[in-house]
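Ticket #4471: complex job returned nothing on first submit. Input attached below:
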Amino acid sequence: MKSFEYESSSEGDEPTVLPISRAVVEPSQWLKTSASGWGWQTGANPSVGGTSTSSSAINQGSYPSFHSNHGEESQIPGRRTPLGTVGLGGFYFQGCSPNLPSHSGQSDENNPDQGGPSQNISCRSPQSRAVPGNSQNTLPTKGKNRQGKTVRLNINARERRRMHDLNDALDELRAVIPYAHSPSVRKLSKIATLLLAKNYILMQANALEEMRRLIAYLQGTAGGAPIVVPPGFDLQGFPAAAKFLQQQQAMQNESGPPNDSARPSGSNM
DNA sequence: TAGGCCATCTGGTCCT
DNA sequence: AGGACCAGATGGCCTA
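Support reply: We reran it on our side without changes. The output follows.
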């Protein structure tokens, strides 16, 4: 796949944390940074507000490449945080499960089938928030309570899985939109990822339209004659243009006798 | 320390 | 009934 990296090369080996703001993903900020790469212009100083090279997380290499591997990502700050260390929610207390595995697809620390819900309930944190109207705070009869908690834990596990899938999809989206995929650069936030992807799509659509107009213009300047691809020019890297020329060639063939001299010579499509 | 971002829990709603 | 989806609430981590 084509690389669309925007790197701040002036920083040398100095890790850079690009500020991710709404301005970053505005269409007007887009620039073609090189012949082979698209990126965005972050203003005069790309690292404004984001030169925290002393960040412990960064120095510890806590922002590696992001793959759809839940187990690895549990080490990344702000992402895939192990259940034992994040919001306690209704059932989880950090001191209860010191060796809770992170979400890995094979084990689910919130799965009632693994350990049972009663264990979690028995060590509920006294600081767990009391949800108004939460039936689990009212502690009904034991049997029904246990079954209800099991259902609740199943629902929680599904929801957690769903959110992980959503995050995996966001990771895949980050992988194909142009921004600096570097361990020293902070990962795009969710909202920034969506906005950047939207603007990237718009930019690609504009580029495509511009190319179509250019081809039409070139065709016009050729006096109505089909565009002749210069010898040695390979259209393999331009499938859209090749297809367009093929269509033009087909239209020419339909409207009149074939003209061998006008056949694209460089196209191998 | 405030604000941003995130993961998780939870109850409600809709759909199959 | 069960699952997917959604939004609100909560608390942890990180950075300026």
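Residues 142-176 of chain A form the longest helix (35 residues). Closing as resolved unless it happens again.
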